[in-house]
Amino acid sequence: MDYEIVIGLEIHTELKTNSKIFCGCSTKFGSEQNTNVCPVCLGLPGVLPVINEKVVEFAVKAGLALNCEILPFSKFDRKNYYYPDLPKNFQTSQYDLPIAVNGHLDIEVNGETKRINITRIHMEEDAGKLVHSGATISSSDSALVDYNRTGVPLLEIVSEPDIRSAEEARAYLEKVKAILEYLDVSDCKMEEGSLRCDANISLRPHGQAALGTKAEIKNLNSFRSVQRGIEYEVIRQEDILDEGGRVIQETRTWDENKGITASMRSKEQAHDYRYLPEPDLVPIVVDPARVAEIRANLPELPDARRQRLMNDHGLSEYDAGIITSSKAVADYFDQSVQNNGDAKVVANWLMGEVSKHLNSEGITILDCPVSPKQLTELLALIEKGIISNKIAKAVFEEMWTSRKDAEVIVKEKGLVQISDSSEIVAIVESVIAANPQSVADFKAGKDKAIGFLVGQIMKQTKGRANPDMVNTLLRERL
Fold first, then answer.
1. Which residues contact 440 (CB under 8 A, 6 or more apart)?
2. Domain 421-477 is of which CATH architecture?
3. pLDDT value, residue 426
């Protein structure tokens, strides 16, 4: 490419509080439209907002976890613009004095570590939700407004333009999501809109210091959309520049079905919002002692947990990274190991059978019907030689649908592994006698022939024969 890609992400995450940022209305998702509202969040005349203290605490937590400096004095501002989902015609946000500044996060892409600097983290209220008549905003001729989301507390995490590819953008977003989940400040359910991001993308000739003209892709709500949207926008801008054109600074929307971005409106500058201090809210003064207390009580974060899994349990860097990328999966792993499960075996099952079943049903580990205790009980049956790995997979399938314990299923279905050598020998000898050609092939040096014979033995025993004993006894007889 003749151009360097320059990307900055603005990540918006709804905080996991019971009530909204400036009033007592519920933040529960999925309520009937326009029921979680009151005069404050609807912006009716004469009302006064009051800050939710939990929002400030969560903002400080997030700032510390993202290596930010917590400002002892911050304030709220009015960001003025008109849009149907904004009943006050301004958004209460933070501008020149946010809660946290100057952070950073290290990501790893293609085996290389890179630092993405974080400009700021600020608190603000969410807007309402437009329900379009068509599939997208550009294909709709009307929209309804649900104000339930208005006033739900948000953190906006703004990166420096340090990202240089769609892969880096995705890795950065995935890591921020994981940290927020570990902190338990947000549920980060992208499908519900509680984690979404805007991507600012520009191109500049290699070696040029000045930034190019950026376009912003608004409200990307999945890792796939972030990566695909950026990839498309890079190609679009490159084509414009190659043809001698000029990229327009604008806000664009991502059409997931068509795989393209489309223009929404011209991109505003900060002065277009006419920021002014919010007169109805006192400034936020954070006691340094309180910040120190929050720092001391931060939970184990993904990087530290990954290192612990490698050091204490001997997991590879790859396996530890996969497991710790989700707090829920890492918790499931730790609980399984605490129940005397072998760490490496648990990891293999988590990334194998458990992950396969979760993906096929489109659910997360939080909805897994097999508990960590049940999984370790199943693995114990394998370790004791009561069932084979192959049978264990069939037992797991039954556990998934019936919710029964492994031992109960094994007894009900008579799946106990045959480990009696005399019983296996008799079957081995009968298979050898019934398959002279395979025996001849084996003796002629065709070692693969033994696989067919093993298969016949396992077929006769319905998979219950101890596979190690089968191989040993078969080779002895051959």
1. none
2. Orthogonal Bundle (1.10)
3. 80
